[in-house]
Amino acid sequence: MRLGTFNVWGLPEAFSDDVSSRMRALAERLEGSDLDVLLIQEAWTREVRRTLRQGARNAGYSVSEGSGASGGLMTLSRLPIRSSRFEGFRFRGDPERLTKGEYIGGKGFESVEIEGEGGPFTLINTHLHARYRVEDSALDSAVRTAQLLQIVAFVHGHPGSVVVGGDFNCRQSDPEFQVFRGLTGAIELGLLTGQGGELGTLSSTNFYKRGRSGPDKRIDFLFVRPAPGVAWRAGRQELLFSETARIRRRDRSLSDHYGFRVDLDWRPAAAVAAVNPGAAIDLQALSTARSLLDFGFAEADRREREHFQWAGGFVLAALAAAGMRRHPEVDRRGFLRGAARAATVLTVTPALGFGALARLDSDDKRDIFADARVFLGELEAERARTRIL
Question: Would you state the CATH architecture of domain 2-279?
Answer without folding.
Answer: 4-Layer Sandwich (3.60)
